Each structure stands twice: as structure tokens, then as C-alpha cells.
Amino acid sequence: MTADRPLIYLDHAATSWPKPEEVVAAVLEAMRQGAANPGRGSHRMAVQSGRVLFEARKSLAKLFRIANPNDIALTANTTQGLNLAIKGLLKPGDHVVATAVEHNSVRRPLEFLKAAIGISVTYVETAADGSLDAARVREALRPETALIVATHSSNLLGSILPVADIGEIARASGVPFLVDAAQSAGVLELDVEAMGIDLLAFPGHKALLGPQGTGGLYIHPRLDPLPLLHGGTGSQSEAAEQPTVRPDRYEAGTPNTPGSAGLAAGVRLVLERTTRAIHARETELVGRIMDGLSAVAGVRLLGPDIGQPRTGICAFTMEGVEASELSFILDQHYGIAVRAGYHCTPLAHRSAGTAESGAVRASVGFSTTEEEADALVRAMREIRTHYPL
Q1: Phi–psi pair at 339, nearest 5 degrees
Q2: Mean pLDDT of the region 347-360
Q3: Catalytic (active site) residue 314
Q4: Helices 323-334 & 370-386, crossing angle to 10 degrees?
């Protein structure tokens, strides 16, 4: 940030900041009062740590309408959850249907298994704005299709995919459905049963407002993916194999208890405010940014048109200024933090027509204000005067 102005943080799609005081306090309390190893002892501090993890699971289950909190495996991030689901379920010869706006956290595990064990993948094309016709997913199904994967919202374009419609297709075809909720958990309504979601990977550190190093994967009780990690869990310790009981089966090693305490606090805040209100607020803010940027000469907005449904993401390019340079100027001269480049989603850039240039992404969140949104627009207008067309 610059010396004479505070940082304007517009990178919430990467991680939320600043964390609410309730989250910070919960992490500190867990570290000071009882961050023992849960499940590995019967002393009071170990029991208390176990309660911290269960409270996190219970809050998440309430948010996502999950019947049994123990069907949630706590992970370090969305990526770990996606790897657990993908690598734990797929076998040689399996076919996967994914979308052309997937993050590398989906694409890379799929491409790894493609090379390693011979799975095949169909990436269903989207429109340039990131929208998807669910019927195209149905058309891509094969007899050997073993998994359907879809992001709920593109981390580049902000488009919202028809997850409930895809879930209905998956349920009718008997194919497990994995949803990447990296950009939707805490912002959009998620009901795993109503939406036909069998596996839901989510981050704790984005719109759920928790610390980095937190996240999870919901696994439908009828599914039994192989564990990604093997090791100590504190349960069934006499067995050489990984435990069969959930969630221990998927949580080898010492967990992030302080992080889970912070995550539970963040989820409670989301539940109090409601995802409906949070999404409405983000829609208002991102619309304000888009309206302002649309009047700046040479700026091209990516994703759905102004007024169409999206999450709190506004990606754009400016004619005559490279994305990386634009981001650098915003940071160094205006104290505005955005992200530039390919955002770990080259397929979405291909769909948007920005595979060669990349883009700048501004993303709003829980703490963003109108003044901060307006500051970005003013900065872009001023930058345009220094880079005339």
C-alpha cells in the first residue's frame, strides 16, 4: 500500500480480508485456552478441542443443509477437498464431465489421472460470459461416466452455473455430482439434498470469513472415496488400515483446531447475516463497479452483462495497458489490491477470449464499502488519461 493512504482490498475472490474480529478472537481463544490434539486423548483439553471441530462441522452442516455433520471432512482448502473427491472416486477407464470454466484445482487432478490411469474428460463449453446450458452436460454423458464436476461460480467471470439443474441430471443418470463452491460458499444458497449435490468442496478462508488453511468436503453417505491421506486419527488405532468411521477416515494427522474455531465463528456470522443478504450486497457493489468501468474508454468487462446474476467478481481488460501493469499501477499508485493474470483458470480465459492477454480481477466481499468501489472507478479513469487511446 502507499504510505499516505490505507489499502483498498478488492481481492476477496482469493481470500477475504480483513477477518472479522469475532474470527480473530475465536482463533486466539482456541490457541490460548485449549489447542490440544483432538481425538488423541481423554483429558479435558483434548475433549474441548474435539468440541471445537464438531462445532465447525455443525455450523457448516446448517449452512449447507447437510443432515449429518460427520459427513463433512475438514481440509486445508478447497483444492485438498477436490483432490480427495476426484482421486478417491475415479478408476481406470472412467469418464468425467466437467465444464470449460473450471479452476486448475479441478482441471489438474483430472489431467493427472488422465495421464496416470487413463480416465477421459469432456469439458463442456460455456458461452463467452461463462453461462452454461445444463442440457449440454446431459449430452456429454456416456455409459462409462463416473463423475460430473462443476464450479458453482467462475472465479474469473463471476457467472453462476445452473448447479441445481445439473444435479437433477446427475441424479437421474445415477452419476455422482461434485461441486466446487470456492466462490459460492457463504454467498449463494447451497442445499446439498435439494440441489442433488453428492460432493461439495468449499474454502473456509473466502466468503466463510475463516482463516487460511481451512476448508472442507461434504461426502454423501452412499459414497466412499479412498482417503487422500493415510495416518494417525486417534481411532481404530489397532488396525493397519485407515479407519472406516467418518470423519476420521478422511482426516489423518493433527488438524487445524484454531483454524476450525475461526471458521466456525465466520460461518456463524454468515448464518446471522444470511447468504441472501450477502449476495444482494455484493451484487450492489459489483454493479456499482461495472457501471463506472463501462464508461471508461477501452475497458472491456468480462462475464455476464450488467444487471445479470453473478457473484462479487468483476474482471476486465483495458486497451493499451497490460493486465499485470494495470494491477501494479493500482497497487503502487492508488493503494488498491486487485489480481491480474490467468487466475488459475485458463479454460475460462479461452471461453472469454482473453487467453492471450489475461485480465484484471476486482472482487468485493463482506467488508467492502461503496467508497472503495468508487475509488477503483476513479483510479481507472485517471489511468486512462495517462494511457490515451
Answers
A1: -120, 140
A2: 90
A3: no
A4: 120
Q: Which residues of 199-236 are buried (b: 16+ CB within 10 A; e: fewer)?
A: bbbbbbbbbbbbbbbbbbbbbbeeeebebbeeeebbee
Sign of CA dihedral 2, 302, 14, 209: positive
d(Cα 345, Cα 131) in Å, to the nearest integer?
15
Tell me if the pTM is above 0.85.
yes
Maximal CA-CA distance, the chain: 71
pLDDT of residue 316: 97
Q: What is the mean pLDDT of the chain?
A: 94
Task: Judge whether residue 3 has pLDDT over 80.
Answer: no
Taking a C-beta distance cutoff of 8 angstroms, is the pair 192, 200 a contact? Answer: yes
| CA dist., res. 304 & res. 287, Å (int) | 11
Q: Is the pLDDT of residue 1 over 60?
A: no
**Residue-wise pLDDT tens digits, 118-169:** 999 999 999 999 999 999 999 999 999 999 999 999 999 999 999 999 999 9
Query: Residue 45 — pLDDT band, cuts 50, 70, 90?
Result: confident
Q: Tell me 250's DSSP state.
A: G
Question: pLDDT band at 271, cuts 50/70/90?
Answer: very high
What is the grid cell recorded at 280? Answer: 444482494
- Determine the residue type at 166: I
Helix (H) or strand (E) holding 317: strand 313-318
Q: Read off the C-alpha cell for 196.
A: 442433488
CB atoms < 10 A from the CB of 258, how many? Answer: 22
Active-site residue, selected from the candidate residues 36, 236, 344, 367 = 344
Is the distance from CB of 355 to CB of 349 less than 8 angstroms?
A: yes
70 Cβ neighbours under 8 A, 6+ residues apart? 57, 246, 247
Q: Which residues have a Cβ under 8 Å from the Cβ of 1 and sit 6 or more positions away?
A: 7, 331, 335, 337
**With b meaning 16 or more CB within 10 Å and e meaning fewer, what string describes 3-33?**
eeeeebbbbbbbbbbebbeebeebbebbeee
Q: What is the DSSP letter of 345?
A: -
